[in-house]
Amino acid sequence: MATSTDNHADLVQELEPVAAELLERHMSQAREWFPHELVPWSRGRDFAPGWEWSPEEANLPEQVRSALFVNLLTEDNLPYYFRTIEAMFGRDTAWGEWVRRWTAEEGRHSIVIRDYLTVTRAIDPVELERARMAQVQCGEVPEPELPHDGLVYVALQELATRIAHHNTGKMVDDPVGYEVMKRVASDENRHYLFYRDLSSRALEIDPSNMVLAIERQVRTFEMPGTGILNFANHARAIAKAGIYDFRVHHDQILVPVVVRHWGIEQLTGLNDEAEQARDALMTYIGRIGKAGQRQAERRERLLEREGRQELASV
To answer: What residues contact 83, with CB distance under 8 A and at least 6 apart?
Structure first.
């Protein structure tokens, strides 16, 4: 029966058995893998004193380098994501077991991506290290105030991260690089499923507060990368390449998860405030869809112009 959890800690406690079941599912599906087996070490060589990086070091478009840069630095901010999630859900019971397992898996992602980028010299290692230092010193991550918001945010964030990793991998003109990003994306997908299904159960327990949280988180959601140096420019480059933009956000996150899986339009028993939030949410999702379509059309026109210019120069 749906109830309202005025004491928001009650939701965490009521969801603990569900978290335990989902953790067990996760562990049964997870497969051990090793970063060192994916990295092409034979391509590596020493960095001579005074060596300076040049884009010619790697045959990657600037937008793809931006995506790899953001993807890795997001993973590097792991200590602060861990702190926030542990504070929100607790360090004991299945919640604590989950967040520690999640942390171990996410740490593996930063290892394999950084090793791959260093060996292949795909990104300036000096710029990358300076950005990592700034990112970790800053320690900025979203910190939702309520567990309802936390569940929704991490579900959307994990799926967005999986999509960004996978789409970046498809644009890396290197089978090894593609395999690295594919492996990382596979882990992120299981993380997303954990939080998605927790959120589904929370919607059954406390639909009104969850709808309010979904509306807040969808309205304020940004691609993972809070605190990264020059993030706005990198985000524009990533969107321009179609790796992650409004259309991806609408078609691969908002519609399949919020509208279909969580069945936001079919929920019953909502209070007046949640009913208003649902109406606002559906209107907002519609606007994002239209913005994504316009963005895609502009990209197609730009590609057509660039194609004609290339032909004219031959």
So the answer is: none
Instruction: Output the pTM of the full model.
Output: 0.90
Q: Average pLDDT of the chain?
A: 90
Could you give the domains of the chain? 19-43+57-313 (1.10.620.20)
Element (H, E) at 202: helix 175-205
Distance in angstroms (rounded) separating the CA atoms of residues 130 and 148: 35
Residues 6+ apart with CB under 8 A from 232: none
Interacting residues of 190 by C-beta distance below 8 A, sequence separation 6+: 26, 29, 30
Q: What is the C-alpha to C-alpha distance for residues 69 and 160, in angstroms, rounded to an integer?
A: 16
Please give the structure tokens belonging to residue 269: 């028993």
d(CA 289, CA 297): 12
pLDDT tens-digit series, residues 134-187: 999 988 888 888 999 999 999 999 999 999 999 999 999 999 999 999 999 999
The span from the CA of 137 to the CA of 135, in Å, is: 6
Cβ atoms within 10 Å of 146's Cβ, excluding its own: 18
Say if residues 85 and 11 touch (Cβ distance below 8 Å). no
How many whole angstroms separate alpha carbon 208 and alpha carbon 231?
34
What are the tens digits of pLDDT across the range 29-67? 999 999 999 999 999 999 988 899 988 888 888 899 999
Largest CA distance in the chain: 69
